[in-house]
Specification:
Low-confidence stretches of chain B: none
CATH topology of chain B: Helix Hairpins
Shape of chain B: elongated
CATH class of chain B: Mainly Alpha
Distance between the termini of chain A: 65 Å
Helix content of chain B: over 70%
Radius of gyration of chain A: 21 Å
Number of domains of chain B: 1
Structural class of chain B: mainly alpha
Largest sheet of chain A: none
Structural class of chain A: mainly alpha
Number of helices of chain A: 7
Order of helices and strands of chain A: HHHHEHHH
Oligomer: heterodimer
Number of strands of chain B: 1
Low-confidence stretches of chain A: none
Helix content of chain A: over 70%
Strand content of chain A: under 5%
Mean pLDDT of chain A: 84
Number of strands of chain A: 1
Largest interface: A-B, 89 and 68 residues
CATH architecture of chain B: Orthogonal Bundle
Strand content of chain B: under 5%
Number of helices of chain B: 3
Largest sheet of chain B: none
Amino acid sequence: MLHLVLFLIFGAICIAGAVNLLVQRHPINSALSLIVVMGSLAVEYLLLGAEFVAAVQVIIYAGAIMVLFVFVIMLLNAGEEELTSGSRIALLLGIPGMLVSSVLVAWVLLAHSGTEAVPAGALPGPPKIIGWLLFHDFLLPFEVTSVLILIAIMGAVVLASPAESVQQSKKEG
Amino acid sequence: MVPLSYYLVLSGILFACGVTGFLIRRNIITIFMSIELMLNGVNLSFVAFAAHWHALSGQVFVFFVMVVAAAEAAVGLAIIIAVYRTRETLNVDRVNLLKL
């Protein structure tokens, strides 16, 4: 019972944050509401017994990625977004589309899936077991993602550096 | 005890919000945040199914999704900075030419 109440409270916070992300016109407000969504999702992961995922969610998503977002918003001095004719068409099509797809998904899931409950904490996700899985069963994907991260770092440095400095380093190198 | 379908409905609603944000917003940074919202919705269903089927590999998959999201955020934000440097705008409607 307590789990259901906690799930409903944090699910409501989650959806409120997601809707606020759509409604706000200033990107910094959207970023802050995305942090609310991620924080309440971490609580949902804890309710499912996934401690490691909850911790990583807070550290990587709410910590690293969102700091990057806020930093870029402040660096580019992003203001309120302007309305164009394209955005009005998108509003007219997008909001009914979201409502229809949400209701459809909710109806299908609630009507056609059993009422089997997920027992809270039945499957503990301690870092020890996750780490064992990561370095035995998923060793190859793990190594591939490390290469991906390396490429992403280099790509970010090349893309974000001014064009003149790239040309200069080509001449020097 | 929370039914599995509740978690899936929550993740579906988050995904739908992400898709809508992707469609209706014109600010390139907000569009990018909507993509992160979609990834979060998918992550929730991964963890819910992992708990439902007693398979921890779902949680490892979430870890990989987060790593890919981090790499994507780094490269995507660098692209946004590069676009802003050449166009001086963040509105995707104004970024409609391949060549300046």
